[in-house]
Write a structure and sequence with these properties.
By secondary structure, this protein is of the alpha/beta class. The protein is built from 16 helices and 15 strands.
């Protein structure tokens, strides 16, 4: 495997996606849900049927049923009695947190080095939970944290997701779960939805409209953006920035899981509307575990030869969590191949600038909707710095707890808990169905610490609504913002 350079703290933290629980099977089993009164009428997407998978396993869920509170203040004053679902009592709400216990060990597994400051997710969660509980909790209830540390790298990602799900659903009966930034694909989501547990999902797997419909009521991405909205932003932004030069030849590198096939079609359609097209596409097997990165590196080496033979001058990506660019750019430099790249927030631009030099990144353009991970050199690079709001509030909480601020891990866990608080404190129906109905009424009112702006409405739980262009600047060897906010709907 090609050599790797050391990176900064935030780059190191971001790449831990490789070591966390994930899956490359969009649906691992036909889900069988026994709907109790706790969430009556809400399944894996109302009116939808999950695709049959290959494992054949099912989880039959039994619940305690919805309870009506006879004590304690209503969530919404004057709003009547409080309905409480599983994991909720008059005084507490149980929340699951899926994190990576030893980030440095995970880094070592992919041959990546970096300092350890700021990536202790457990400490960050402890600080946030204490702060929330000292200030009224969520919906007037103390948070009871249930933490799953996916510490081992020996197992496949599906197995880790199943273990986390079993703890949250079968053992602890949490109301909702929160994923860390380093999470993987769809295994945890599909299992939790089967167990009727909503997931605040912070990983980079590209959940498209199919997922949003199938898992309605169970998938929430407060600062993320579904492909149907980011694909036009991607190519529209690149075109606006002058990326598509005369005589260019555009190559796409993508993973082979079904969602990436769907995204490629979205990309082809969007390019066609702009009078553009791909010259060549390279399809890479989606890794099932860290152990498969060696084989993936071999495929990427072949891609370089393929693209060179076709004269590819510009390269874009259809992947997740910078897995492909992380390896591809290093190998490309080793082989003297230097195309012009187009990136999005999914490709973790802050990580790439720390890992690779200006020889590879010269002329690169990016489209950002996650400044919390794209702007990593300084907090002052973020236009929200010094403006108050959730961005400042999050870091103030962490620093007051005696820990050093970290844009990635502080921001994602703040985002999940801030969102839960916002959605659940607008309703007296503390059930899955109640949360779904409440979140649909948020509109543009939710202030996220991790994205530029948000918008929620019925059928939409991917909140990010604005993007900004970024351009790589050789003199600082970093990405800088370019222009103003762009409306992503």
């Amino acid at each position: 495997m090609a050599r790797h350079r050391k990176a900064s703290l935030l780059a190191a933290g971001a790449l831990l996606v490789f070591a966390a629980c994930s899956s490359t099977n969009e649906i691992t089993a036909q889900r069988s849900i026994t709907e109790g009164s706790v969430d009556s009428g809400v399944g894996v997407g109302p009116g939808a049927t999950a695709d049959p998978g290959t494992s054949g396993s099912t989880r039959t869920v039994t619940t305690e049923g919805t309870r009506t509170s006879t004590g304690g203040a209503p969530v919404v004053p004057g709003g009547g009695p409080v309905r409480m679902g599983r994991g909720v009592t008059a005084g507490s709400i149980k929340i699951g947190f899926n994190i990576t216990k030893n980030l440095n060990a995970a880094l070592a597994a992919v041959g990546f080095g970096g300092p350890s400051i700021g990536n202790d997710e457990r400490t960050i969660i402890n600080i946030l939970v204490k702060h929330f509980n000292d200030h009224g909790g969520i919906a007037g209830r103390k948070i009871i944290p249930v933490v799953f540390d996916d510490a081992t790298q020996a197992q496949g990602w599906d197995a880790l997701a199943e273990q986390a799900c079993s703890k949250f659903v079968d053992d602890e009966g949490v109301f909702a779960a929160v994923s860390g930034h380093v999470g993987g694909t769809d295994s945890l989501l599909s299992c939790l939805a089967e167990g009727q547990v909503p997931l605040m999902q912070q990983n980079q797997w590209p959940y498209d409209g199919d997922y949003q419909r199938r898992y309605a009521g169970y998938l929430y991405q407060p600062s993320r953006m579904r492909p149907e909205r980011w694909v036009p932003q991607y190519f529209g932004g690149l075109q606006e920035a002058g990326y598509f030069t005369s005589g260019h030849k555009l190559g796409l590198i993508r993973f082979d899981a079904p969602v990436f096939t769907r995204i490629e079609k979205m990309m082809r359609d969007d390019l066609a509307r702009r009078g553009l097209k791909f010259t060549d596409v390279s399809v890479i097997r989606t890794p099932q575990s860290v152990n498969q990165f060696g084989a993936m590196a071999g495929e990427l080496s072949s891609t370089i030869l393929q693209f060179r033979s076709k004269g590819i001058t510009h390269v874009v990506f259809d992947e997740y969590a910078s897995i492909i660019p992380f390896f591809f750019l290093t190998q490309a430099e080793d082989q003297g191949y230097r195309p012009r790249y187009g990136f999005t927030s999914i490709n973790l631009m802050g990580t790439l600038e720390a890992q690779h030099g200006k020889e590879q990144l010269h002329g690169s353009i990016g489209v950002s909707w996650l400044p919390g991970q794209d702007l990593t050199r300084s907090f002052r690079d973020d236009p929200r710095y010094g403006q108050g709001g959730a961005f400042e509030e999050c870091f103030a909480i962490i620093e007051a707890g005696g820990y050093e601020r970290s844009r990635i891990y502080d921001g994602t866990h703040c985002d999940s808990l801030f969102f839960l608080k916002k959605a659940l404190e607008r309703t007296n129906d503390l059930t899955v169905a109640g949360m779904q109905a409440s979140a649909a009424t948020l509109g543009t009112s939710y202030d996220s610490p991790y994205t530029w702006a948000t918008k929620f409405e019925p059928g939409r739980t991917d909140g990010a609504s604005k993007t900004m262009l970024m351009a790589y600047v050789d003199s600082c060897t970093c990405f800088k913002l370019r222009g103003g906010l762009r409306d992503a709907g």
